[in-house]
Design a protein that fits this description.
By secondary structure, the protein is an all-beta fold. The chain is about 0% helix and about 45% strand. It contains no helices and 11 strands. The chain has a 6-stranded antiparallel sheet with strand order 6-3-2-1-7-8, with no helix packed on it. β10 and β11 form a beta hairpin. It is elongated and about 55 Å long.
C-alpha cells in the first residue's frame, strides 16, 4: 500500500539537496511504494539503448530519473517560493493541503 505524501502529480517542486539542488520542475509521476517522484527537467540521466520499435535509431537517450520525495519541497503557487506543507480540514470538513508559510490552501 502506498503512503500519503506532501506532493502530487502536477505540482511544481523545488529540489533542496542532491546533484540537481536549486532546480524547479513539474511532477510527472509519484511512485508511492518507492517514495520517489519523476520531475520534469530534473535529475537527467543518459541511457544507452539498442534500436527498437520505439527508438529505431538507438543510441544515447537522455531522460528524467526518479528522485527521492524527501529531497523535494512544494513551491507555493501564490508566492513562488518553496514552502512546507501541512494538512488540515477546511470549512466543509475536507482534508486539504496548506502552505505553512502563508497559511493559504493549496489547490
Amino acid at each position: 500500500m502506498g503512503r500519503k505524501f506532501h506532493i502530487k502529480k502536477g505540482d511544481t517542486v523545488y529540489v533542496i539537496t542532491g546533484e540537481s539542488k536549486g532546480q524547479q520542475g513539474r511532477v510527472l509521476d509519484v511512485m508511492t511504494k518507492e517514495g520517489k517522484a519523476i520531475v520534469e527537467g530534473v535529475n537527467i540521466v543518459a541511457r544507452h539503448t539498442k534500436p527498437n520499435a520505439k527508438h529505431t535509431q538507438g543510441g544515447i537517450i537522455r531522460k528524467e530519473a526518479p528522485i527521492n520525495i524527501t529531497n523535494l519541497m512544494l513551491v507555493d503557487p501564490s508566492t513562488g517560493n518553496p514552502t512546507k506543507v501541512g494538512r488540515r480540514r477546511n470549512d466543509k470538513n475536507i482534508l486539504v493541503r496548506y502552505s505553512k508559510k502563508t497559511g493559504e490552501e493549496i489547490k
